[in-house]
Amino acid sequence: MRVLVIEDNPDIVANLYGYLEPLGYILDSERNGDAGLLSAGRNAYDAIVLDLALPGIDGLELCRRLRKELRQSTPVLMLTARDTIQDKIVGFESGADDYLVKPFLLAELDVRLKALVRRARDAHVETVMRVGDLSFDTTTMTVTRSGRRIELTPTGYKLLAQLMRAAPKVVTREALEYDIWGDDPPDSDALRTHIHSLRQALDKPFAAPMLKTLQGIGYRLAAPQQGKTDGP
Questions:
Q1: pTM value?
Q2: Is 191's pLDDT higher than 50?
């Protein structure tokens, strides 16, 4: 599980790393709200642990912008010393999914994070994904475009699923690599090879391409506009 910790207290951050990493968590951390929002927008995380009292933009504003501006549904667990009911209401209304009051037990943080991620994954299970004339039935692993069956490699199916879930937004190279290989991507430019194979299967037999490359950033999948055939 990959988690972003946005917390300016170095002792709390150290405790989180010391407890969660041995359990298999992969942690990134930021010490202020602006850097935290930037990391949340650039990278794919399973959950975010968010302090409220942060330098720069505070946790409440960060959460609001995460939901409204970045349109992200990543589960957010707020950490705060504010323990009144009104504080909790404001936190949930800003877009938080759970709320843990300091001081807290690390074991409780662990089980709450796992529950949040489990619910989020269940909520986003899609049997059939569609982008334009492209469809992907994840139960039968059947991909069709304009009714024509498309066969992919196992890695191709993984890439397509991630691109279709995000469509028409851009998915960064780093996010795609992490989804396929975790924290141990191959040394060679394997992603480019897999993207090339996916594009050959997905776009070559058709007049209008759907898989677009944003040089130095990543890739996006989008339904072609009628009457237009733009390049990859």
A1: 0.57
A2: yes
